[in-house]
Amino acid sequence: MFIMKKTTLLFAAIILFSTVLKLHGAEWVSIGKDRLGNELFYDHEVIIERSKDIMEVQMKGIYSDAGRRERIQDRNRAKSTVERYETLSYSLELQQINCVKREFRVMAYTDYSSDGGVLYKFIAEQQAMKGWEPIAPDSMGERMYKAVCRPSSGKKN
User: Fold this and answer.
1) Measured between alpha carbons, how far is residue 149 from residues 45, 81, 92, 116 in Å?
2) CA distance linking residue 59 with residue 41, whole number of Å
3) Is beta strand 133-134 parallel, antiparallel or unpaired with respect to 103-113?
4) What is the pLDDT at residue 124?
5) What is the dihedral of CA 92, 97, 103, 107, to 10 degrees?
6) How far is it, in rounded angstroms, from Cα 70 to Cα 84?
7) Number of Cβ atoms within 10 Å of the Cβ of 119
8) Lowest mean per-residue pLDDT among 5-9, 32-36, 66-70
9) 122 SS3 class
10) 19 near 12, Cβ under 8 Å?
């Protein structure tokens, strides 16, 4: 019952967060392109401090042609549907970053088509200590970490 309430609250918060972003518009700042040419952005005006160590950030990835092909291949390998994925344009991701431990986890993820339609949606049902992964050196994750976490205290202003 408690987990169901937490999941419902998380889902409601994500919907509200998404609605606010659509109504007011996000202030997307690029952190660069990955090896496939996908460009990654974060909304620098909506970084939420979840605890003294954990920051939450909304991210947007705009797919290149090569990135779209790789995403389709990944979904094929996972035996997931690729219906309409030839129209994949961008993704939105809600991510938490532990600035002290240099870890991250994905809380929500959505793929969108070029016409704005939802192709895939994922909302994590994670507990406080679950789902964390280390941030790899010289990765897009490290660029995001540097953008939202201050080196000295592990927090952004």
Assistant:
1) 14, 36, 20, 31
2) 6
3) antiparallel
4) 87
5) -40
6) 15
7) 19
8) 5-9
9) strand
10) no
